[in-house]
Specification:
Number of helices: 12
Strand content: under 5%
CATH superfamily of one domain: MetI-like
Shape: elongated
CATH architecture of one domain: Orthogonal Bundle
Distance between the termini: 24 Å
Low-confidence stretches: 1-11
């Protein structure tokens, strides 16, 4: 068997082992199925929802859950389940975009800092330390108040603060990997620093990166919901789970308290599902575990 073929077979077997480990993690599989169901229902709300978005029936008004409206209706007579699904489209989109962008930026900067060392490491890590010590909610609120609360602005601001943790994790891993024999062999063969990072270091960081990206989705959803609940996030007429919570905040203990519970449960299910998936991915990529 040729060396390249052997390496490919080895990589494939490792991938199969990871998939098998993940499939045996019952909570991770339950979380994955829940997350997929939420994404299908929210991003496919145009086909799944029983009523169109913002379809008002002022004569109906707020009604409790019933056979016609499973989660009831709000003050404008809108089907609340349909509104939850359409709002979830925006909340999940923000969480996914922030996770992908912050992971990409954090991975790149962490790899550069750990491999290059010297002044590049100092600059990147000092900026990372500065962003880690400032209160995130306060910075986000001020930034959104000055720049506006559009979904794109929220994604960019959350990304600007969200890359720091993954950058520190990746840097610590790269500091260890850069001393390994395969990196020294690549240097001897004349590989450039960029090639060593892209072809040799980043593939070995796949498990760490994937796990952190999955957890970043949950963190981004919570942050967006918190900002919207405080009035700094998504603004009407756009809706997210956070501002739906904000609009129903004063209904605890009233006959319309169901308007508060539904978006809260949606956020809870999303965060739990993402965390269970992250736990499963961590176990799946753990090289010290038995296959």
């Amino acid at each position: 068997m040729k060396p390249g073929t052997a390496a490919a077979a080895k990589d494939m077997s490792q991938g199969r082992i990871a998939v098998r480990r993940f499939a045996r993690h019952r909570m991770a599989m339950a979380g994955l199925l829940t997350l997929v169901a939420l994404m299908v229902c929210c991003f496919g709300a145009h086909w799944v929802a029983a009523y169109p978005r913002n379809a008002q029936d002022l004569l109906l008004g707020p009604t409790p859950p019933s056979a016609a409206h499973w989660l009831g209706t709000d003050d404008l007579g809108r089907d609340y389940l349909s509104e939850i699904l359409y709002a979830g489209r925006l909340s999940l989109a923000i969480g996914l975009c922030v996770a992908v962008l912050s992971t990409a930026i954090g991975t790149l900067l962490g790899a550069v800092a750990g491999f290059a060392r010297g002044w590049a490491d100092e600059v990147i890590m000092r900026v990372t330390d500065l962003l880690l010590i400032v209160p995130a909610i306060a910075v986000l609120a001020l930034a959104l108040q000055g720049l506006g609360s559009s979904p794109l602005t929220i994604i960019l601001v959350l990304t600007g603060l969200g890359w720091t943790l993954i950058a520190r994790v990746v840097r610590s891993q790269v500091l260890s990997l850069r001393e390994k024999e395969f990196v020294e062999a690549a240097r001897v063969l004349g590989a450039s620093n960029l090639r060593i990072i892209v072809r040799h270091l980043l593939p070995n960081l796949l498990g760490v990166v994937v796990v952190n990206m999955s957890l970043t989705v949950a963190a981004a959803v919570i942050l967006e919901s918190t900002l919207s609940f405080l009035g700094f996030g998504i603004q009407p007429p756009q809706s997210s789970w956070g501002n739906m919570l904000s609009q129903a905040a004063g209904l605890v203990g009233t006959s319309k308290s169901y308007l508060l519970y539904a978006p809260g449960v949606a956020i809870l299910l999303t965060v739990l599902a993402v965390n269970f998936v992250g736990d499963g991915l961590r176990d799946a990529f753990d090289v010290q575990r038995r296959p």
